[in-house]
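subagent[fold] <- orchestrator: predict structure for attached chain, return tokens only, no commentary.
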Amino acid sequence: MNCEPLVRAIAAGMMFLEESGDDEVDPDSAERALENMSHVLLQYAGPDRDEFLELIERVADSTPDEHDARFIRDIPRAIGMVES
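subagent[fold] -> orchestrator:
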């Protein structure tokens, strides 16, 4: 199964919530949604976590927009999956 579209969808949702203005998405709701997404992603452990991290890098490497690529690469750090 090709999971890259799933990672792209997760990243797009997170980017939307993170970068939307207060007039687009209630900030408290955006924060709750991001926390819920992070909680679910942090359930990955062992080889699954390693595979997710590799997939994040692959997706970021194939993303032409540098801003989007940086955002995708930063997801594991932003959710607390890896340290800076």
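orchestrator: received. Logging for downstream: The chain has one domain: 4-18+26-78. Residues 4-19 form the longest helix (16 residues).
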